[in-house]
Design brief:
Shape: globular
Number of helices: 15
CATH architecture of one domain: Alpha-Beta Barrel
Order of helices and strands: EHHEHEHEHEHEHHHEEEEHHHHHH
Strand content: 15-25%
Structural class: alpha/beta
Bound molecules: iron/sulfur cluster
Number of strands: 10
Distance between the termini: 43 Å
């Protein structure tokens, strides 16, 4: 089997969350569940099944998702330990990291205590643990930023103090076109806390983009976020992935399609019943098609036809960034957004064209 540098394997172990992000891919009922969404045995079954399809791996990023894992009952720590141990046995990898999802919504002290236990658990299983803090509307609340800071400082102290180089924790901002935070304030906060920040967006759940003016605002917001984070040298997957896509923008179309397909092999989702499937690897974040793109299952799996459909969209037709769009997975985002616009758009549906312009230094 072909070796792979970086494999992301994540799951639906938890769905509990008291948050109200407007474009959340979980249902209200799923978020209201206070116990794990599925049994650890099912996740382990999925890990073993997926593991048989992969050879040597450089880094395995084992996600424990989704929603707020830190608010589950205390028995979940044993489950998570078993999932980590199973991940270690199922895959042949050199470095292991585990990414534990939280929204930090709720009382902060019990979440800090749980997070410390999970750091120790990961350490015992030889995984380097990071927390992925997912937020959107909460970011407009001062109390939330105080909680976030308290959480980060507590994790820093537990890991050995501020002299430890970068704790690896990530703020994942769930974009929604109608509740975009002030981009300058966000980047100032992130610079202050030295936090990596990644963007995610679920266009299928974003009712606001039915109005193309909002779609345009969103694209401008992403471009400004790109500009500010690049200027300040902040860590963001948007910057890394955009720059990589622009660097290979001259490659032939067919190479970009092959590259995109290979990237998708690097993302594995385990379902609640223990089955598994590959995900979308996009310039913003990895996306589970079952959650983010429920209509995709009804389509032909022919990626060439899908891309041609996108490129026929009025806004895409004359776009000079076809190659970057396809290789970076922005095309997947655009295709999802077009489900809300069956007659097409005159505004970039992926929200990425303006960012590609800024990154390439070539406004078009
Ligand atoms: S960057 Fe936007 S406008 Fe250009 S091809 Fe991609 S989705 Fe279409």
């Amino acid at each position: 089997m072909k070796p792979i540098d970086y494999l992301i394997v994540t799951n639906d172990y938890a769905t509990s969350c008291a948050g109200t992000c407007p474009t959340c891919v979980l249902s209200k009922d799923e978020r209201a569940i206070k116990t794990p969404f599925t049994r650890a045995e099912n996740i382990i079954k999925g890990l073993n099944a997926a593991g048989d399809n992969y050879g040597e791996i450089g880094t395995l990023a084992l996600g424990i998702g989704r929603a707020n894992v830190l608010m589950l009952p205390k028995e979940s720590v044993g489950d998570i330990r078993a999932i980590m141990a199973a991940g270690r046995n199922a895959f042949n990898f050199r470095d292991g990291i585990t990414e534990i999802t939280t929204s930090l919504i709720g009382k902060i002290d019990p979440q800090i205590e749980r997070a410390k236990k999970l750091l120790d658990t990961a350490d015992n299983e030889a995984f380097d643990a990071r927390f992925v803090v997912v937020a959107n509307t909460a970011l407009s609340s001062e109390k939330y930023w105080v909680n976030l800071n308290t959480f980060l400082r507590a994790m820093e102290a537990h890991r050995g103090g501020s002299n430890i180089d970068g704790n690896g924790d990530i703020l994942q901002l769930a974009l929604a076109s109608e509740t975009l935070p002030d981009v300058h304030e966000l980047v100032d906060r992130v610079s202050e806390y030295k936090f990596a920040v990644n963007l995610t967006w679920a266009p299928f759940y974003d009712a606001g983009i039915e109005d193309e003016a909002r779609l345009e605002e969103l694209g401008n917001w992403i471009a400004e976020f790109y500009r500010l984070t690049s200027e300040r040298g902040l860590d963001s997957s948007l910057v890394n992935r955009t720059d990589m896509a622009i660097a290979i923008d001259e490659e032939p179309f067919t190479h970009s399609l092959a590259r995109a397909a290979e990237s998708e092999r690097a993302v594995v989702y385990i379902d609640q019943d223990g089955s598994w499937h590959n995900g979308y690897f996009t310039v913003l974040a990895e996306m589970d098609p079952i959650r983010f793109d429920p209509l995709a299952a009804e389509e032909s799996p022919n990626s060439f036809r899908r891309v041609i459909f996108l490129l026929k969209n009025p806004a895409c037709h004359g776009c000079p960034f076809h190659t970057a769009c396809i290789s970076s997975g922005a095309e997947r985002i655009g295709t999802m957004a077009l489900r809300k616009h069956p007659r097409g758009t005159h505004t970039c549906p992926s929200g990425m064209r303006r960012t590609f312009e800024v990154a390439s230094g070539k406004p078009h």
